[in-house]
Write a structure and sequence with these properties.
CATH architecture: 3-Layer(aba) Sandwich
Distance between the termini: 25 Å
Structural class: alpha/beta
CATH topology: Rossmann fold
Radius of gyration: 18 Å
Order of helices and strands: EEEEHEHEHEHHHEEHEHEH
Number of strands: 11
Strand order of the largest sheet: 1-2-3-5-4-6-7-10-11
Helix content: 25-40%
Shape: globular
Length: 300
């Protein structure tokens, strides 16, 4: 049964999907501007982010003639928080994704995954490769730099409230200036509106469940948890369809060696490097958007 629209604005319908374990997942559904030119595109955000990351990119893709979907992963944005933080992992997220595809009658799609969204895409390839026509991995791959993982682990879960949007902008700048060293104050103001929410009491806080930080909890000996071997699921993704990797030129998560490792597993891999940006590009940068635009023009 397809989900009914719950909220409309000038660009998207907001839909609710029910997961296998009963949570509600919110999805923005941007209709294709006719004539349709290809399969739908499903946009998957990063660890501490939500569907607003694609508020400019998604309508651009819809204008190309592709229905475009962007969700709030469980524990983020308007989606339900999970009472069991152990379920905040890519396997569960990929199962949620299959439920969303089924409920919205999307048999196959092109996936754009930023950071964690790319890990979900690779996991989906292991579970249901027939659902993937092509994929864009935004600053992520099967080999991740420990320095970037440590930096992310250092801030995820710190969701204290702030009093003003100006303070929110300073908070995100403090965490993310390393990734956007040339950004101006307007950029940080827009960034804050994407990652924070305002509560009924007027307070402002980051728009995710702090319990998502469980995956970064140190082991008993104090070491950071080691990521699993993700090369097999990347190979499954490469076998499913064409792959484009977008890398921020100053990324501390996806090193140049990480892209080389991907190319060793997929000789047809396409890649682009976005200058003066770290982890992760917004995909609004000219180099990133041009690469995505050209890729979409050549895939189903």
């Amino acid at each position: 049964m397809s989900a009914a629209p719950e909220l409309r604005n000038e660009r998207f319908a907001e839909r609710t999907v029910r997961t296998a374990d009963g949570l509600s997942i919110r999805v923005r559904d941007y209709p294709a501007i006719e004539p349709a030119t290809g399969l739908p595109v499903f946009c998957l955000h990063g660890l501490t982010r939500n569907s607003k990351d694609f508020e400019l990119v998604a309508p651009r893709i819809a204008a190309l003639g592709r229905r475009t979907l962007a969700w709030d992963t469980r524990g983020r944005g308007a989606s339900d928080r999970d009472a069991d933080p152990a379920r905040y992992n890519p396997m569960v997220y990929a199962q949620d994704l299959i439920a969303a595809l089924d409920e919205m009658a999307v048999e196959r799609a092109v996936f754009i995954g930023t950071s964690m969204g790319g890990l979900i895409t690779m996991t989906l390839a292991a579970l249901a490769p027939q659902r993937i026509a092509a994929a864009v991995l935004n600053d992520v791959g099967p080999v991740l730099d420990p320095a970037g993982l440590a930096r992310i682990g250092g801030y995820v879960g710190a969701t204290g409230k702030v009093a003003t949007w100006e303070e929110a902008a300073e908070r995100v700048r403090g965490v993310n200036a390393v990734a956007f060293p040339h950004a101006d104050q307007d950029f940080w103001a827009r960034f804050a509106r994407r990652v924070f929410r305002q509560n009924p009491d007027g307070s402002i806080e980051l728009d995710y469940d702090p319990a998502i930080s469980l995956a970064f909890k140190p082991t008993e000996d104090g070491a950071a948890p080691a990521p699993p071997d993700m090369k097999p699921i990347f190979q499954a993704l490469a076998a499913a369809g064409p792959v484009l990797v977008v890398r921020g030129a100053v990324s501390d998560l996806l090193a140049p060696e990480g892209v080389l490792a991907m190319r060793a597993l997929d000789e047809d891999l396409e890649s682009v490097e976005v200058p003066n940006v770290g982890h992760a590009p917004t995909l609004e940068e000219p180099a990133a958007w041009d690469a995505v635009l050209n890729f979409l023009a050549r895939v189903p």
